[in-house]
Design a protein that fits this description.
homodimer; 324 residues; alpha/beta; inorganic pyrophosphatase (n-terminal core); Diaminopimelate Epimerase, Chain A, domain 1; 6-stranded parallel sheet; 12 helices; DHHA1_dom (chains A, B); nucleic acid binding (chains A, B)
Chain lengths: 324, 324
Amino acid sequence: MLPPEELINFIETEDNFLIATHINPDGDGIGSSIALSMSLQVLGKKTVLLCKDLVPGQYKFLPGNESFYTLEQLKAQETKFKDYKNLILVDCNDLDRISDSTPTLNYSSSAVIDHHASERPFGNIRWVVPDAAATGLMIYYLIKRLGIKLTYEMAVNLYAAIAVDTGNFRYENTTSSVLRVASDLIDAGARPYVIYRHLFEAWSEGRFNLFMQVLNTLEKKDKIAIVKVTRKMFEDTSTSAEDTEHFVEFLKIMADVDVSVLFREIDDTHYKISLRSKDDIDVAIVAEAFGGGGHKNAAGCRIKADFETAKKELIGKIKQIMLN
Amino acid sequence: MLPPEELINFIETEDNFLIATHINPDGDGIGSSIALSMSLQVLGKKTVLLCKDLVPGQYKFLPGNESFYTLEQLKAQETKFKDYKNLILVDCNDLDRISDSTPTLNYSSSAVIDHHASERPFGNIRWVVPDAAATGLMIYYLIKRLGIKLTYEMAVNLYAAIAVDTGNFRYENTTSSVLRVASDLIDAGARPYVIYRHLFEAWSEGRFNLFMQVLNTLEKKDKIAIVKVTRKMFEDTSTSAEDTEHFVEFLKIMADVDVSVLFREIDDTHYKISLRSKDDIDVAIVAEAFGGGGHKNAAGCRIKADFETAKKELIGKIKQIMLN
């Protein structure tokens, strides 16, 4: 996986970079951005890390995470950063992914480094590799191409990025190159178990209780497993929507479940729905039918109806897809 | 990791091999044995795969698993196998690990390939590497040393062996060599997600219900999480002891749990106990205090007392260890 020469030129020629990742940032967005920033600094460049949202608690173990600015903080110090005219989007490929409202970033050139497929091209230089398991993998190859020695800090960030986007090497995107890169990152100092623990073994007791309450709502029929999380459950357990991460995926642990669904109650007639599937069942099609979207095996949408109606409509669509 | 030359000589010189793995076989024992057997067959050797127990259902996807004989089946066909005089123990290193009673195996030479530390040496040739994450890793290096090309079937067996013993690359034994070997196995045809699904996403509905019942017994205090499984729960959910695999480990998902414990009721005054711990907390010491044993982060023992007494005694010992 070779970065385009124009990206290399861009990095080698310019001096000041704004590095921005997407809203609701995940480990791949954050880890990749930090590792890119650190490697540009090795080349003597100046960098600013940007994200609309604060770094979520579970990623605070990543070395360098404290360097992120929110878009607001950047704006408040506009004068200080007025020379940063080169924007690099990381783990996303359009401006609307870095902010809900149009951000007022001042930049003259822009580049994109991402592994999501996109419909609306943005950026003077685009390096988008949908086949890459994680943006962290692309940053690894970029660092190699730039001839920079991997530091411990870069290795931890990139290993975490890859671990998050491959489900710790269990998803279908886990290729031999993914494991070869990860093994290189271990040689550079990344410790698999320590990182795993931070990423996947950091549930609060409230989150654990929420998990049990959610599992207790399980309905299973025709290889479809459905659970529900309500506002009351969040209240009872002092948790919030982000604590439901991985819940819907967990249902796939059952051999006879091919599609798993989490209904999150927004209000009595409004549900946010997460879908997961095994193998070739394409739940993105299901999500799109309700105005949502996503990937083949992981997608989401919203339905404005009471729970029973929403469930019935959704199951109908899922069954249609499963027949194909 | 180089196999000893005497093992290479043994394999190259002899023609007929009995390959035996331990009772209650796991993925590492089964996968390693099958891959070893297949590679010896490539060299023109004759092999018989042995295990006291039948291959558990979850490992039936491993190519070649149908070649296993139980010790009874071997005995019934004694004449057919009378020339098999070379015994290789795989993933265990003493005869008492391949059968509860002394097996009546006829062999003249014996070798051991294992990654468990042992106290009672057995075998004319011993290749025991406690630092190896899995016996599957050792078999991989042996196959390389023998100059044999990895087949798809060997790769699947070895990948599964390694995935089981590293918790799909999340335990502390996950080194850069582990990932490098795994990536080689993918290149030879092993498919990470397919194997993961067979190993870790094959729960029956009964097992899922058992899991929920067990989680509902959770007691948590001073970073120790305790759950219990009773005979009635097994009955209610049509499950058995082997269905509790991974339950005790799951509790470590909580950030503030350092030791997790599963009590399995044998009868009202007899419990089998599984212990897991994080980092440097050595639960093997706890298990040994009650006549059991194991590794630093995974151990087991039995206590003959009613539940409350057993729990009290165990917690006392755990707290002692945690203070050190």
